[in-house]
């Protein structure tokens, strides 16, 4: 049985920092996607929202909040939270509804307004919450990114210059993306001159937090054909699998890993696990991938993801980068949108923004950042406590 | 949840002037602190997570009675090994030594609940894989160790050191330091 659904419309706001109500970004992205699909709002039967936890109660019921803002019209609603993977889970809920035959066409939407500076935990004395403990100990998100980056330097011989080259590559292509927040084509010198945050990572190696919204209109293949969009790109796989116990890599926001000492347990990291299920579900392999949108929370993490997606072997991503293979025009372009380096992260919108970019690329509508002949794309991103998501989009 | 009770006799033997009437607070010296240390009483920043032994402090974890898996922070109600459904645990001290898995530093002041000194002083952070348990535990590196002195794979040991202080007390926590002779 075919498990694909069609992406018949995509929409995105520009990313930035304006501090507006998150629902405004959600509505703007949703209207953009509805217009792109040429589907009337009243025809949408299911609204699946990515939750934001920084905007009070309306954020916890994001699906309903945005549906109400668009005007109640009787559709069912859902809200999903999985940190940066929220959008993928919201998409998975819509896919399930469509494949179960309970609705033909759905809106999937995520939007956020984020505070300046470090993302901080909930208040109080709460040692039972690892997120509270690690901030109390002075361990922030960049700490984790830097620990992984240092491992790359030690294990594979990557250098801070390689990490800077990721930023330079993403800034060069992102400068051509009208929705990007940062449109300057930064140089290696700019990166080297930026302040050290968590050695070896500098300010420009680490992504910012942004406001923004992204939305998809997804439907059954039959509905897509009926409205003349039978050739729309399809969601071929959504993977949100968790790792296997014991996980030997310390993941945000934990301060310790599982213990691998007891007998009969194995260690597979979630980042390596997620794409395996995505490839299996899509019936495709890494060799079929034309481009990837990966979660470059830091420059070095982009290199980790390239390896986790099996686009090259362990430790080979920096060589691909140095060779220009991961730039648009190279063998396997990564983050043709400019990535988080140019957008910053708007948590519940991010996984959907990745699917928007793949959709434009597969339609051949990506303008002067177009990956020629792109037919299959993959996304990867990270949740918290060692999980994340990966989506495969194909023509 | 079981609460760890420090050995007050041992502490008082070393530091006769410590401990309050309820047995909740203890002052103790730290071997790696400079002589200019505050004379305020030293109390754990997080209650019950580590022993207060001045010479060889230990993290306090728990061990599943059925499958033997260790947990830190301690886990006393459910075993996270997918092949085990136990809810019985013993308190267990964890290895005080391990190898450096990775390291970095914090050049910017983190947000609350972190309590920063004025002015903020950057500090190093280590991820250390414990010898016996094969688990990686994060912690600050003791003051005075430059990043250049660290290298992945080097032996590290656990000590107690101040995390921050208020008007009345110094809050101590575990930190990592290179083992003698390895820096």
Overview features:
heterodimer, A: 395 residues, alpha/beta, Peroxisomal Thiolase, Chain A, domain 1, 2 domains, nine-stranded mixed β-sheet, two-stranded antiparallel ribbon, 14 helices, 11 strands, globular, B: 183 residues, mainly beta, five-stranded mixed beta barrel, three-stranded antiparallel β-sheet, 1 helix, 9 strands, 4% helix, disordered N terminus
CATH superfamily of the largest domain in chain A: Thiolase/Chalcone synthase
- List SSEs of chain B in N-to-C order: HEEEEEEEEE
pLDDT averaged over residues of chain A: 94
> How many E-type strands of chain A?
11
Question: For this structure, what is the CATH class of the largest domain in chain A?
Answer: Alpha Beta
Shape of chain A: globular
Radius of gyration of chain B: 17 Å
What is the subunit arrangement here?
A: heterodimer
N-to-C SSE series of chain A?
A: EHEHHEHEHHHHEEEHEHEHHHHEE
Distance between the termini of chain B: 39 Å
Strand content of chain A: 15-25%
Instruction: State the share of residues found in helices of chain A, binned by percent.
Output: 25-40%
Cα distance spanning the termini of chain A: 18 Å
Instruction: Assign an overall shape of chain B.
Output: globular
Describe the overall structure.
The complex is a heterodimer of chains A (395) and B (183). With 395 residues, chain A is of the alpha/beta class. The radius of gyration of chain A is 20 Å and the shape is globular. Chain A has helices at residues 22-37, 57-60, 62-70, 86-99, 130-136, 141-156, 160-174, 188-193, 221-226, 270-282, 299-308, 317-322, 339-343, 347-363, and strands spanning 5-12, 46-50, 76-80, 105-112, 196-198, 201-202, 212-219, 234-239, 291-294, 376-382, 388-394. In chain A, helix 7 crosses helix 11 (299-308). Chain A has 2 domains: 5-117 and 210-226, 3-Layer(aba) Sandwich (Peroxisomal Thiolase, Chain A, domain 1), CATH 3.40.47; 235-394, Peroxisomal Thiolase, Chain A, domain 1, CATH 3.40.47. Chain B is mostly beta strands and 183 residues long. Chain B has one domain. Helix content of chain B is 4%, strand content 32%. Chain B contains 1 helix and 9 strands. Chain B has a 5-stranded mixed β-barrel with strand order 5-6-7-9-8. A 3-stranded antiparallel beta sheet of chain B has the order 3-2-4, with no helix packed on it. The longest helix of chain B is centred in the first third of the chain and has 7 residues, at 8-14.
């Amino acid at each position: 049985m075919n498990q694909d659904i069609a992406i018949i419309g995509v929409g995105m706001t520009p990313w930035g920092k304006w501090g507006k109500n998150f629902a405004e970004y959600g509505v703007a992205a949703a209207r953009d996607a509805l217009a792109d699909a040429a589907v009337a709002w009243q025809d949408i039967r299911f609204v699946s929202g990515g939750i934001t936890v920084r905007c009070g109660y309306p954020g916890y019921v994001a699906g309903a909040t945005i549906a109400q803002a668009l005007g109640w019209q009787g559709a069912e609603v859902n809200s999903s939270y999985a940190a940066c993977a929220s959008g993928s889970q919201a998409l998975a809920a819509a896919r399930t509804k469509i494949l179960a035959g309970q609705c033909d066409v759905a809106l999937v939407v995520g939007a956020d307004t984020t505070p300046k500076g470090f993302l901080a935990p909930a208040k109080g004395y709460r040692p039972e919450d690892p997120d509270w403990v690690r901030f109390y100990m002075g361990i922030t998100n960049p700490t984790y990114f830097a620990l992984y980056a240092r491992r790359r330097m030690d294990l594979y011989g990557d250098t801070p210059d390689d990490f800077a080259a990721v930023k330079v590559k993403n800034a060069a292509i992102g400068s051509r993306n009208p929705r990007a927040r940062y449109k300057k084509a930064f140089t290696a010198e700019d990166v080297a001159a930026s302040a050290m945050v968590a050695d070896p990572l500098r300010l420009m190696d680490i992504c910012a937090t942004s406001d923004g919204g992204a939305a998809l209109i997804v439907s059954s293949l039959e509905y897509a054909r009926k409205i003349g969009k039978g050739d729309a790109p399809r969601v071929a796989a959504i993977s949100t699998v968790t790792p296997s116990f014991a996980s030997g890599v310390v993941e945000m926001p934990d301060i310790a890993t599982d213990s691998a000492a007891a007998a009969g347990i194995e260690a597979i990291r979630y980042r390596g696990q997620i794409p395996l299920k995505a490839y299996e579900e899509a019936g495709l392999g890494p060799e079929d991938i034309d481009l990837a949108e990966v979660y470059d929370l830091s420059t070095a993490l982009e290199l980790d993801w390239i390896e986790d997606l099996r686009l090259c072997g362990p430790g080979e991503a920096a060589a691909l980068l140095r060779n220009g293979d991961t730039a648009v025009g190279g063998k396997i372009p990564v983050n043709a949108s400019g990535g988080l380096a140019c957008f910053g992260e708007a948590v519940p919108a991010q996984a959907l923004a990745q699917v928007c970019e793949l959709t434009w690329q597969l339609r051949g509508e990506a303008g002067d950042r177009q990956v020629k002949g792109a037919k299959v794309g993959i996304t990867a991103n990270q949740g918290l406590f060692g999980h994340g998501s990966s989506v495969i989009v194909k023509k | 949840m079981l609460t760890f009770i420090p050995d007050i006799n041992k502490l008082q033997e070393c530091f006769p002037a410590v401990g309050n009437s309820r047995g909740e607070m203890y002052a103790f010296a730290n071997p790696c602190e400079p002589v200019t240390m505050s004379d305020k009483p030293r109390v754990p920043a997080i209650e019950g997570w580590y022993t207060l032994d001045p010479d060889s402090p230990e993290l306090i974890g728990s061990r599943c009675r059925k499958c033997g898996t260790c947990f830190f922070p301690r886990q006393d109600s459910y075993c996270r090994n997918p092949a085990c459904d136990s809810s019985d645990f013993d308190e267990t001290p964890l290895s005080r030594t391990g190898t450096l898995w990775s390291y970095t530093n914090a050049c910017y002041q983190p947000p609350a609940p972190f309590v920063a000194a004025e002015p903020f002083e950057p500090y190093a952070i280590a991820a250390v894989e414990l010898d016996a348990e094969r688990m990686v535990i994060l912690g600050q590196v003791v003051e005075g160790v430059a990043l250049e002195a660290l290298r992945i794979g080097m032996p590290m040991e656990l000590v107690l050191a101040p995390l921050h202080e208020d008007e009345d007390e110094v809050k101590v926590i575990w930190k990592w330091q290179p083992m003698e002779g390895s820096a």
